[in-house]
Amino acid sequence: MTDHALRRADLQADAARLGRRTTDAAERRDVPGRVVASWQRSEAYGVSLEQVEPAFSGSWDEESLFAECGREVLDGLHETLADDPVSVMLTDAEGLVLNRRSGDHALLRALDDVHLAPGFRYSEREAGTNGLGLALADRVPTLVRADEHYAMSLCTYTCAAAPVINPLTGRLEGSVNLTTWSEQSGNVLLALAQAAAGSTASLMLVRSRGHDAPPAHRGEVRRVRTTWLEPGDGPAGAMSPVWTRALAEAERGVDAPGVTLAVGETGSGG
After folding, report:
1. Is the pTM of this model over 0.90?
2. CA-based, 20 to 30 A from 63: which of 37, 122, 148, 209?
3. How far are the Cα atoms of 8, 120, 143 from residue 186, in angstroms, in the given order?
4. Same domain assignment for residues 72 and 13
5. Quick one: how far is CA 128 from the chain centroid?
């Protein structure tokens, strides 16, 4: 059989496997629809199901505001996760890996084997379904676990990534990606990726205005509450007199036409 015929047979086998995989996912309903859609796009791009083919670029703008701020945030996050089997990365909007940090040398060697390293592109088009590639494609925080990856060589990893949006222009700058072994939980990593992406965008905003940034939180996961008065918090009368007066003023401001009022603690922004 000629090389061309062998390659065609391999492609047909890959397509059949992907078809079964997509059908199985639809039947089980435990694979996110975004992941299934990404599998289908990866197939259309001609990405190999077996392994990621290296797509090396090797050069990027290390002095851009995004690269500078992203490096600073990654350094802080790496300090927090230095003893954990996690690699933290910064990519540009095309999926090019700009920086990578990890204290786990075995993980770094394994990531080198699949070309998830600085200078290589890992967009959906180059690497198929993966955390950072899908986060960039859909512009939303993304968690891709184990066999949700398109290429079989990535199924030993779990990846959590969040896009970084330029706070001044609204342009997609890149992503923060955290990768660990597939047996590790990815939910906390996704929260960390989101926090790091938000910190990078905030730092870009501060630096673009010529101000020094306040000390950044390093890797902490904080609870975000949509409202102060949640079930179990007690009645509004349980608030302090200061907050009671502030809430009343806010309600009057909302009712007044053409007036918008934001209430928060000192330093919370608005």
Report:
1. no
2. 122
3. 37, 23, 7
4. no
5. 16
